[in-house]
Amino acid sequence: MFSRLREDIASIIERDPAARTAWEVLTCYPGLHAIVMHRWAHSCWQNGWKWLGRFISHVARGLTGIEIHPGAKIGRRVFIDHGFGVVIGETAEVGDDCTIYQGVTLGGTSLSKGTKRHPTLERGVIVGAGAKVLGGFTVGEGAKVGSNAVVVKEVPAGATAVGNPAHIVQKDANKAREEATARMFAAYGVTPNGDDPLSSALRGLIDQAATQEHQLQKIIAALKAAGITCDVLPQLDKFDPEQLNRLVE
Ligand SMILES: CC(C)(COP(=O)(O)OP(=O)(O)OC[C@H]1O[C@@H](n2cnc3c(N)ncnc32)[C@H](O)[C@@H]1OP(=O)(O)O)[C@@H](O)C(=O)NCCC(=O)NCCS
């Protein structure tokens, strides 16, 4: 339990430029409190203690302004920033490392019980303040939903959806880079220095180096599997594209 809490706090500090210390996050972040209470509520719900699950969810809503149905599945390191007015429905699924801002609804449009009525957010999705995502469809990995968007159909992985009804404005814009750098988080869904040509050039070089590093590791592993060993070269510092990309910010 404490290791989950520690990783939640670390992920908040990483993603919120306003977060100063772990103590501040632990005591002053309603999004964290809502997630922790949801874990209790969800566990009750799954073990057949439905009323208790609903009651914990209801108390959490009063304390945090965030309503998460105890049946909803929430992944690891999910960050609900500010959070007031967030509503997450019973059959919603929120993947690891998603970020949800205040006023977001993950809601349904159908009344039929027992069906998947609420959306699934795959890993790393960012949903901007006030956005409504309505229906039992999937928002693909790493996609961004703009603030106040009303999303009523699938969003492909890596795409950005804005407006009402939402439409796609950027398809896979940052996907290659994000894959190469193991998905560096962009606070508020914005890529820092995205327009700066020097930053873009450096990011391109980092991506290239990350891809080559990955390919080399695969080749060495294949050679090893075939019983061929390579000469041991002097050990260099571990190549860390995430850290390099942070320096380019
Ligand atoms: C959607 C979002 C992620 C896009 O960021 P981005 O990748 O940097 O994209 P850009 O700002 O270049 O915008 C791309 C296009 O979408 C439009 N756009 C961006 N956000 C929009 C929004 N919320 N609603 C409608 N249109 C939007 C821009 O005007 C631009 O249109 P254009 O190409 O016709 O000029 C970002 O604008 C956003 O809404 N982030 C959420 C922020 C938030 O909720 N913050 C709360 C903090 S408390």
CATH class of the largest domain reads Mainly Beta
- Work out the radius of gyration: 20 Å
Supply the CATH superfamily name of the largest domain.
Hexapeptide repeat proteins
Strand elements, count: 15
- Which molecules other than protein and nucleic acid are bound? coenzyme A
Q: What does the average pLDDT come to? A: 88
Count of the domains:
2
- Pick out the low-confidence regions: none
Shape: globular
Q: End-to-end span in angstroms?
A: 34 Å
Architecture per CATH nomenclature, i.e. the level-2 architecture of the largest domain:
3 Solenoid
Instruction: Assign the CATH topology of the largest domain.
Output: UDP N-Acetylglucosamine Acyltransferase, domain 1
Secondary-structure element string: HHHHEEEEEEEEEEEEEEEHHH
**Biggest β-sheet: count, sense, barrel?**
6 strands, mixed
* Strands in their spatial order, largest beta sheet: 3-6-9-12-14-15
Question: Helical region count?
Answer: 7
Could you tell me the strand content as a percent range? Answer: 5-15%
Helix content: 25-40%
Structural class: alpha/beta
